[in-house]
Write a structure and sequence with these properties.
Layout: H1 4-17, E1 22-31, E2 41-45, E3 50-52, H2 58-69, H3 71-79, E4 83-87, H4 91-96, E5 104-112, H5 116-130, E6 135-140, E7 146-149, E8 157-159, E9 163-168, E10 173-177, H6 181-192, E11 196-200, H7 204-207, E12 216-218, H8 222-229, E13 235-239, H9 244-254, E14 261-264, H10 268-277, H11 285-288, H12 304-319
Helix pairs in contact: 1-5, 6-12, 8-9
Length: 324
Amino acid sequence: MQSSQHHIIARVANWLVEGKAVWLCTIIKTWGSSPRPIGAMMACTQDGELVGSISGGCIEEDFLQQLREGALKTRYETEKKPFMVHYGVSAEEQARLRLPCGGQLHVLLEFIQATPHNISTFAEIDRALNNHQRISRRVDLITGHIDTAPESSDEAVILSHEQMLHSLSPRYRLLLLGAGDVARYVAELALSMDYDVTLCDPRPDYLNNWFVPGVQLSSDLPDDVVRDQFSNPYSGVIALAHDPRVDDMALMEALKTDAFYIGAMGSERTSANRRLRLPELGLTEAEIERLHAPIGFMIGSKTPAEIAISILAEVTAVRHRVMK
């Protein structure tokens, strides 16, 4: 499974291989309340196959109508380069497109033909995202030439008069330790939030009775799974087993990695005892400080579903750097 960005890039790459030209729309500026963030994309073939979204649907409908009427092709043939379209500039247009009050979108439209260079470029982007690497797509706004650039900024889009640099991120992944009820709810919520989810539990009696569609299951040793698959900044590790043989094995490896989030479920007392054990596993004080334990926000919950909500809320806050 792929992030929404990766899914769009993969579809564009496939269409180009099939010899189809593609319209690629990228939000480059927003004002007021916008339905989609800067960097969001939509792609469409000339015969109306569409993937992605830049609004709640009305802008997409307007785009398809202009495509059918030939207005987009006419403008491209006149300008021979990417061009900007401004949506929601007037109150009448905001009402027609059902944009939130004051909402405006500036969208870059590119007509990408199935040339060997473009096919190669989108294949390169697709490979990088498959390998969980960030990559930027660089567009020359004068010529329309597209190439790639090493990731250099946290901004989704960097725009100048001559070029657009569009940062593309791979899908975030979560490793859940321990096949229990809380893990089931965390997995279901995480999947709905576009995470790639793996559940690891080396205890056969637990793993054999646990299943959530869309979740990869692993009976391998937790530290091996972390080391091999969850050591980059797009990975999170959540220990839910209530068994040091499972949780601590994963934590002793995860706390040494660049994983963006590492947490362990348990009471204040359990968490304090865990912090006393971790130095014995070779972890430094600075590494142990990265651990979120007790896991989740304190919302006074006791049911597995509510605990899962508090966990994913904290993961989201950390991911967006609202908290350390």
